[in-house]
Batch of 3 targets.
Target 1
Amino acid sequence: MPNILFTNLMGGFVFDEKFKLVDYILIDQNRDILKFRSALDEIMKKYEAHEASDLESSFVITEFTDIKYRKHLVEKNLSITRKSIKNSVSEDTLIVHAISSIEDLDKITNLLSKRLREWNYIYNPEISHAISDNEKFSNTISSKSREQLLNDLNIDEDMSLGSKLKKNDISAILSLSQQLTNLFKLRKHYEKYIITLEMEICPNLLEVAGSQIAAKLLRHTGTLKRLARMPASTIQILGAERALFRHLRNKRKNLMPKHGLIHEHPLILKSKLKQHAKAARALADKISIAVKVDFFKGKPIGKKLKNDLVSKFSIDY
Amino acid sequence: MPNILFTNLMGGFVFDEKFKLVDYILIDQNRDILKFRSALDEIMKKYEAHEASDLESSFVITEFTDIKYRKHLVEKNLSITRKSIKNSVSEDTLIVHAISSIEDLDKITNLLSKRLREWNYIYNPEISHAISDNEKFSNTISSKSREQLLNDLNIDEDMSLGSKLKKNDISAILSLSQQLTNLFKLRKHYEKYIITLEMEICPNLLEVAGSQIAAKLLRHTGTLKRLARMPASTIQILGAERALFRHLRNKRKNLMPKHGLIHEHPLILKSKLKQHAKAARALADKISIAVKVDFFKGKPIGKKLKNDLVSKFSIDY
């Protein structure tokens, strides 16, 4: 029997016919894989070795139970794991983090806006009342003085119900509104950031579903790969799992859910109630095509898919 | 029957014996109350009028049902209401708003810290792991570069499990940490702000209970006045209402609560479990004295009360 060559993640090992180790080369952490390949070829020629078959491998493997290999094996293993962890982060992971942060920020800005409104009621009640949009309210408070604000509303200062506060007290309210304004800005920053990421990894999905729904679909499935593998009917009710299982438990009382995460899409929001199911089906269909094209890096198809939907339902978005 | 003088919030009105209006003076919005008083005296002398008795008033009042007084009455009423609303804001209201904001900020910083840690795990996992304090974590992330951070932890960059991200991706994480750091700063700002307010309106309560517990007691009762009227036994279990009513419903199973909002006080936290009830009773006692002295603007007594507690339980705070 001739010499045999056995390779594993530590390197290449040449054994003779009695399965005794003759020679070996190790893969250094930083060594080039091509260089290792050529070194392997050389050592094969030198010992006239052939690569180990499955049967031969099982004999050879006992050699590696020796403790002297342990440390080397552990190190090698760690370095491979480390590399694969490092490379496991892709754009879809980043999108998932950004969209989760946006949802957190929505909760937070709501909470702080409520607090700011209440607090501001004692200093500037007319403004708390006049501006119902939270973001605009916070911006206005933090950018204008009370005199300006009352002037804008045509209210005489004596007629205002606000108390005269000390500088210290006013600055406490203003600090809150400034932080709130910054949080609103951060939300916008993340919206744009998500779009730039989506332009890279899922331009077609972005075109068909819109950036927010695309991001939420990705967050729900975790990766683009998993989303690309789903049939349209699953995509249609992603996020409506509770309703789905309620339906499966009791078909008479609870209808099948028409849509999950995609219910916020303008195509569904703007269509009539009777058309909701039809629109959701068509949208999920196109999304499933778009995401498959994105995953397999096909030719851009988003615009065409979107136009199909727009012309079918006569709803522009 | 001589002339009679009837006064109401619109002004002074002189009627003859047949309850016909003879003369009147109105209180102008900005007029001095003393000037009005002297004008009233003059008109009384001039018509030899006496102030209306209850019986006479009831006859006179019909005169004011005339529609011509309506507008004047409404205006007068509004202006008085406006003034009393304006003056209703006192330091305790501001403390209540500030402490509520602090509690909101606690929730928010917790939520965002969790999000930041998760997000940062893909870029800088070693740091997410090394620093357990949220505020310190956020400060560190936002102030140092990844190289510096790894250097501080003595970790080789190749050994780090973090992925190499693009500039855009890193800045998304950093923006979050900067906002979070600002929110932590805002919380500290409010802590100081509450102390300055408390130094003004309840220095003794501040001394005995500490700023946070003092503020929470005020938030629970709404005003210093209401807190000052409460007996020590009520103050002891403020904030433990659910436990109290559970006890009242079922005395066998559920014990009387030992303490409510004051349970965070170092005197209780640091004492032994067996001493908790005793410490809570003593603390509530001293708080109730302090808050009464504060409300009636008595001589400073906070230091003495605190020293009594410290020496009784040998716990310094």
Target 2
Amino acid sequence: VAEQQIGDRIGDALAAVVGAGQVFAGADAGPDYQHDESLTTTGRAPGWVVRPADAEQVAAVLALATEHGIPVTARGSGTGLCGACVPRADGILVSFERLDRVLEVDVANQVAVVQPGVSLSELDTALAAHGLHYPVAPGEHSASVGGTVGTNAGGMRAVRYGVTRHNVLGLQLALPTGELLRTGGKLMKVSTGYDLTQLVIGSEGTLALVTEVVLKLRPRPAHARTLLAPFPDLDQVIRAVPEIIATGRDPHILEYVDWLTMAAITHTSQLNLGIPDELRESAQAYLVVAVENNIESRLDDDVEALGTKLLELGALDAFVLDGAAARALIEAREHAFWTGKAAGAQDVIDTVVPRTAMPEFLARVRELAEAGGSYVVGCGHAGDGNVHLAVIQPDEQVRHTLLRDIFAAGLALGGAISGEHGIGTEKKPYFLELTDPATVALLRRIKAAFDPAGILNPDVLFDAN
Amino acid sequence: VAEQQIGDRIGDALAAVVGAGQVFAGADAGPDYQHDESLTTTGRAPGWVVRPADAEQVAAVLALATEHGIPVTARGSGTGLCGACVPRADGILVSFERLDRVLEVDVANQVAVVQPGVSLSELDTALAAHGLHYPVAPGEHSASVGGTVGTNAGGMRAVRYGVTRHNVLGLQLALPTGELLRTGGKLMKVSTGYDLTQLVIGSEGTLALVTEVVLKLRPRPAHARTLLAPFPDLDQVIRAVPEIIATGRDPHILEYVDWLTMAAITHTSQLNLGIPDELRESAQAYLVVAVENNIESRLDDDVEALGTKLLELGALDAFVLDGAAARALIEAREHAFWTGKAAGAQDVIDTVVPRTAMPEFLARVRELAEAGGSYVVGCGHAGDGNVHLAVIQPDEQVRHTLLRDIFAAGLALGGAISGEHGIGTEKKPYFLELTDPATVALLRRIKAAFDPAGILNPDVLFDAN
């Protein structure tokens, strides 16, 4: 009864901030607020769901949470893969669904100012009208901009355009202590104090909540070409990558797909790429190379040069896909996660290693999987060394050991546990086990500098309270 | 006597770390260790100069300094412009001159691993042999890589290639508490905990000392073209900039130079650009536009398109400079700081504003200068909104007020005090006066998370102790 009364008092205080119609007892708010797309989390109802209308309300909710020591989790579209938006049962879920406006498209400065709840597809629609483009494209276009800031989302186009942190110029932040700050701005270079923009990007909702984002834009690319090259084995694909990059033709997509993943995604998407049967049978892996340019004639020249290079590097052929087939292949590749899920994968990971270390890493992964009777298939951002693997191993303990060994192998090759998915709650045990304790201790002190009460996503990255 | 004894004991302890021949009493170490290139600092001998040979020695010096509460200042080449490497009289100056090796040029990953004492020109020589290039080019090529990390150096080529933070992939850090950490790596994307690489870049020696740097490289551009366009007034130059960027021709240099600065730099460098006298007399400002590419035919097309665009935008003409003249102009522009110094400027600043706000900002600067009887001339990175101004006003109080008002005007337009020089000690009063107190308080807490004893550059950014 006493707990119930305290709960009601918190609910009333939240209603005073965001309005009675925008606070829900967690169990009443529905299952959408309980999970992300991680394969390993189980849904959980929060204490409260609040839907603030503006930055001031977000800050006031945080001040209240700090005062009462209540955990707070932010939620954009809920498309994350590591549990970072799964709320605590005793906490507040701050949903950004009402902060969903593109505030400004500044054509002359090539900058957009948006609220965090805007989805990447909504953003793209707004930018298309101005001939502009935001080049960061993780597979899921329904992802919110705020969510991409939280995970430092990458995606296929990173090989040319970088990841979220290279394309965000400024933020408005609500601190756990209730202040609102602005960082950066419509500025391409700043050297005026520590870069809080960069520190918050990739912090997975543990340092501050993002209430506004300034994005760097580019002219919208008018023309693109996609090459698909089947190879007799995966190592040859991976070894081709540095050579393709060294041509200076600057592809914006450079993806590898192993034969099983290709079979699964083309089957699932009913995709006919026009590859002759005998070729498809001898191909063990594929490289997808795409280039784009505003000047079409340059593309023909690029495609010619890249096609010749691919054959030199051992490709069985190099197909230039027509626009519809190219789009379908990219979409199918973006949905590889869902293909993996449908195929019964119990987990997906996205370890990153130096580009040239991919063959060694993948060989090690095969060894580890075989030794434990597990099945690991994949595809990935070959240009970035970012290897996406679907892991099929029903036994939880065997799977945990396999994942730890895979991550350790990546780290031994100079890599990191995650290139773009983040750590969240689901990769936290591996992160804490495999990261230098001095680094973890420093990250904890930085967390405390932002969030002295430890209210923001206390189960993410480390156990803050 | 007691102080002398303590001093000797510290000197002995430092000698035990770095070797007796690598520790100097500050006054004996010579004037080179006492200053940077700021116009407003006066030289100061440190208590001790130490020259460590490796990362472990740097870390041990820091552990010793934390134990005894002794301030520590790092020094690369001493080419900074804000006093950030000027030592404290009671402190230790850590000179990185012996950490001067290019440890690895990894061609396949397009990455270099270097020690912080390597200069940009030494780095460039090492990379040229491999056909690779590090695109960050602040005006001073003798700057050390460590120094460019400290200030997040930018320079002319940032409009296309970004600044230091967009081209550094990883660091080895010595923490004030004596631990050595590695951050990032040969990785294009990482989402595994807070990005310490980014946090340390631009922190001006206040958070940690950098003992190794992983740099992202690009294919060395084989061909370049430079256009010089005189305009009847400066506002037209500045208004042309977004239009040039919108062409998508991706210039790597987009600089404006006002007529007085052009006269001074061409005079100082005895540079004849072949501009007819009558044109030179009617030109109030110049735009320099340069493009580079590995495929030469594309450049001719770019130059044609940009030349036509410049004339449409009001340029009096558009000259394609020959290679020697182009190099001489760029070099002269890089030395504009020295021209300003020679002309008697008492200070230089590098405020950054949104690109399109430059006309309004420059108009406000003219008003403020005239009102106070001061003289302000400049040039700058027009593509980045980064305005370099030489300020001629001998009265210190009048100059201080003018600078504060200029910075405030930049901030009011959405800008920042410094785009690339940093804050150091010399811009600190303005930074503390004009920055949101909640931001300063947060930066102080971050500083304390790294440096609990407040030993690292305690006079830089804020007064840490």
Target 3
Amino acid sequence: MRIAVLGTGVVGRTIATRLAGLGHQVGMGSRTADNATAAAWVQQTGAGSTHGTFAEVVGDAELVFNCTSGAGSLDAVRGVGAGNLAGKVLVDVANPLDHSHGMPPTLLVCNTDSLAEQLQRELPETKVVKALNTMSALVMVEPGRVPGQHDVFLCGDDDAAKAMVGEILRSFGWPDRSIVDLGQISAARGPEMYLALWLRLYGALGTGDFNIGVAHR
Amino acid sequence: MRIAVLGTGVVGRTIATRLAGLGHQVGMGSRTADNATAAAWVQQTGAGSTHGTFAEVVGDAELVFNCTSGAGSLDAVRGVGAGNLAGKVLVDVANPLDHSHGMPPTLLVCNTDSLAEQLQRELPETKVVKALNTMSALVMVEPGRVPGQHDVFLCGDDDAAKAMVGEILRSFGWPDRSIVDLGQISAARGPEMYLALWLRLYGALGTGDFNIGVAHR
């Protein structure tokens, strides 16, 4: 599949590398066409991988991962343009972290709205799916590094888009029973606001190699 | 132990009944001295149980559970008075739910503050411990009804108070490894904001008999 990954940070590089390893044609996007991190990633990853501006890598991709920082995500997709993202599936992995109040960070948007809903409103013809934002990058693409049963949440307004993202998650190693559909895109407030708990668990455990699982009868 | 339970709703009654069953002297408090629900609870529970106003049941209790609705918790403790709660441990089980935006509810306070922090500021000489707010009432007092490993979070500024609450949690059936200390009272933003995810999981699962567990290496 042709997949665009927006963002060159740890999350973007980790997801892009995993997708390329699974045989996908991955384009890594950044604000500028000559981003050194993206160029180095292409060099390491080899044939089939490309890099360019956000708009260039979105090009004819079927699937787009938003791995930009949450504070910059709306600007990033505005740079691409709603028309260029129309009809595509956008997996929103970002968290709208606000570092202006000290540590741990707070959220720029929450409670009565979420970043995923903001993106969906900005891109009405794009199928936004919130997923994977509730764990560290390595756990996203290799769930087996955390022992025991633990889960990944997804939500969005389009069932076919969620099914496509579910396929990608299975290819990352997530078993069916660990992929929890929370419903419409407004449900993204749940996994985004969970970040406040994730940050305290990270502090208490001293490692990012953890995740939550839902126990139920 | 002499324990006051503030609130006559499902959470208050469930916790009060469990505590009475464990042999504690439990007083159930409400806004008025003649609350019919509290009177019926005393009738069912028998010797050792009492009911009265919030201030009356706090009396000489060593431990106080705040099981009032989150929207009314500050008023409830103001009614008791900071002086009457000085030196006591207050377990804050409440969630500051805001039903004015429709379903599912949002939060009255979050992100840069929490109900538990508001209570601690209102009651500077009380040892506030946030705990148990992340699950339905029956799971709080009988964790074994949900199979598998799942956890209860607590936080607060006073270690001795957290140890006392930890003892109560163990007596409810929580194993040591499932009692997760998140740190200071400001960490209550984590479990309180998790409610946004809990509400979507409740919707997706169709049962309150669930809880999350933290998987880690």
